[in-house]
Design brief:
The protein is of the alpha+beta class. The protein is about 30% helix and about 45% strand.
Length: about 140
Amino acid sequence: MYLFECEATFGADPDEVWKVWTDVASWPEWDVSKEIAQLDGSFEPGARGWAKQRGNLGGSFTITEVDPGRRWVSECAVPLGTVTFEHLVEPAPGGCVRIVKRASVQGGSGPLLRLLAPKMRRDTAASLANLQRRVGP
């Protein structure tokens, strides 16, 4: 079940965006929803991490797919299901980059998480704006 998609296009080097977006330990510096984040090992499929949401409990995630410099996917287990986050980095005309984050949920938690989707989308949009400030000119 689809939850949301956020995207942003701005002036930045795609490689720099990729570098910051995949530096899990630095997420709390620009991602408004993260208080703590860590990755156990290299940023590659099968790597497991843990993140604490601001004001909520923490949870683990697994990197399931990586197309270096272009796309990565992570999954988070939730009661009765899984939330999948897809992250895209694409060069855009005029020295710009287009970034996209999509979220979907599989399993019985779908209806509950759908209620949280508007806040998740707002937080993601704010985080992408912070990412832009961090890597932009």
